[in-house]
């Protein structure tokens, strides 16, 4: 199966390009390709980019909004309480059904690579079992990694350390942490060490929730970075949220940039969720509670984005569209200069690929894997301004989503499916 896309704009290049795809790879890229192909697409001068990556998401809780109740306070803690009620009776089937729907939504908006958390403090591990099946069943349309996520803490309950290790043995790809939610600062520090021990034992990366609070004294990120350095785990650690950084003094933040850069830690900002959950204990002025995307980038720290949630106890809105997450990020992070807006697409593309260490096969270049998205826009600014869903999503050289008007058609396992809810 070969596919020829004609007349596309590419990021950071002038002019129009033709792209020939064969056997899942880009085999030719030039201003005019003479060869033919099984299918030809006229891009009409629209922007073709690598497909998007969502680096932080909770598939197990997706689309549970209102079940068993709504989060009326808008705090992280009430969200965790509601989820605790929901997960008591959760089944593998329930997790699968919602997760599959959420994955299809994401793919239809251009995401073909996803890191999801599975809450492994649910003792039957139904969430993990469900997501392991979803990973397999959805592999034609999305590359999924599952992080064993200790939502209720690693040292808060007897047995959680064992659950974390068991989850990795069952097939989780990464080891999670949530040090700011442990009972004490000392437990938080110890929990990081426990997680790194498990990660090292099984050769896994560490993918944490770190300092997701407005407490300026929450300083676990430095501990995470120090562990990465001491254990030779550079470039193998991601830290999600890191919102306490918003409230750190500048001298301390400066110290942190340096050790994060040295440790090769990627910070995953989740702007949709944190602009909603943070600042909830403030009167006025209210802090935004977002990690410092602009300054981190300036100091050479890699930053990528997560959508985090869709319609669950923590976030009542969302459609799985990384362009919405980016839209929020550029506003909240003051990334609205012309060049900043142009570059901002890196946060949902190449920066995520760096965090996953897959740059060698990532991008719109000859020889790279054809995971692409044709946006209904001429450049990054238009894509952000208009927020139009993509016209085509290509995974491994195959078109998996075609869209015209408000209708999207998904192709999975050789079957075509109308996505009328996206
Ligand atoms: Zn999260």
From TrEMBL:
<dbReference type="GO" id="GO:0046872">
    <property type="term" value="F:metal ion binding"/>
</dbReference>
<dbReference type="InterPro" id="IPR013108">
    <property type="entry name" value="Amidohydro_3"/>
</dbReference>
<protein>
    <submittedName>
        <fullName>Cytosine deaminase</fullName>
    </submittedName>
</protein>
<keyword id="KW-0378">Hydrolase</keyword>
<dbReference type="Pfam" id="PF07969">
    <property type="entry name" value="Amidohydro_3"/>
</dbReference>
<dbReference type="GO" id="GO:0016814">
    <property type="term" value="F:hydrolase activity, acting on carbon-nitrogen (but not peptide) bonds, in cyclic amidines"/>
</dbReference>
<dbReference type="InterPro" id="IPR052349">
    <property type="entry name" value="Metallo-hydrolase_Enzymes"/>
</dbReference>
<dbReference type="InterPro" id="IPR032466">
    <property type="entry name" value="Metal_Hydrolase"/>
</dbReference>
<keyword id="KW-0479">Metal-binding</keyword>
<dbReference type="InterPro" id="IPR011059">
    <property type="entry name" value="Metal-dep_hydrolase_composite"/>
</dbReference>
<feature type="domain" description="Amidohydrolase 3">
    <location>
        <begin position="41"/>
        <end position="401"/>
    </location>
</feature>
């Amino acid at each position: 199966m070969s596919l020829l896309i004609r007349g596309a704009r590419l990021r950071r290049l002038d002019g129009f390009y033709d792209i020939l795809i064969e056997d899942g790879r880009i085999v030719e890229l030039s201003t005019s390709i003479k060869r033919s192909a099984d299918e030809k697409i006229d891009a009409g001068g629209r922007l073709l980019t690598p497909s998007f990556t969502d680096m932080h998401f909770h598939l197990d809780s997706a689309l549970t909004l209102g079940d068993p109740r709504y989060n009326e306070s808008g705090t992280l803690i009430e969200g965790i309480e509601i989820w605790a009620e929901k997960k008591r009776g959760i089944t593998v089937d329930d997790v699968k059904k919602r997760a599959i729907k959420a994955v299809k939504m994401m793919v239809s908006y251009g995401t073909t690579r996803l890191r999801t958390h599975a809450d492994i403090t649910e003792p039957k591990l139904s969430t993990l079992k469900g997501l392991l099946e979803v990973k397999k069943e959805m592999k034609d349309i999305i590359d999924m990694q599952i992080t064993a996520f200790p939502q209720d803490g690693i040292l808060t309950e007897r047995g959680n350390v064992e659950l974390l290790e068991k989850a990795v043995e069952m097939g989780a790809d990464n080891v999670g942490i949530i040090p700011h939610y442990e009972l004490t600062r000392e437990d938080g520090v110890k929990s990081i060490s426990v997680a790194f021990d498990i990660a090292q034992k099984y050769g896994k990366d560490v993918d944490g929730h770190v300092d997701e609070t407005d407490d300026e004294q929450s300083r676990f990120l430095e501990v995470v970075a120090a562990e990465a350095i001491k254990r030779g785990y550079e470039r193998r650690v991601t830290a999600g949220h890191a919102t306490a950084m918003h409230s750190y003094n500048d001298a301390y933040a400066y110290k942190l940039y340096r050790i994060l850069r040295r440790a090769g830690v990627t910070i995953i900002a989740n702007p949709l969720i944190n602009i909603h959950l943070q600042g909830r204990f403030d009167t006025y002025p209210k802090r935004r509670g977002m990690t410092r995307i602009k300054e981190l980038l300036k100091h050479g720290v890699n930053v990528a984005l997560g959508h985090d949630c869709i319609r669950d106890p923590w976030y009542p809105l969302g459609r799985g569209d990384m362009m919405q997450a980016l839209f929020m990020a550029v506003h909240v992070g003051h990334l609205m200069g012309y060049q900043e807006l142009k570059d901002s697409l890196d946060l949902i593309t190449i920066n995520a690929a760096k965090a996953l260490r897959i740059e060698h096969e990532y991008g719109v270049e000859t020889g790279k894997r054809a995971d692409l998205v044709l946006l209904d826009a001429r450049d990054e600014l238009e894509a952000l301004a208009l927020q139009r869903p993509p016209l085509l999503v290509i995974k491994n050289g195959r078109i998996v989503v075609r869209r015209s008007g408000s209708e999207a058609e998904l192709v999975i396992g050789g079957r075509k499916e109308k996505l009328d809810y996206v």
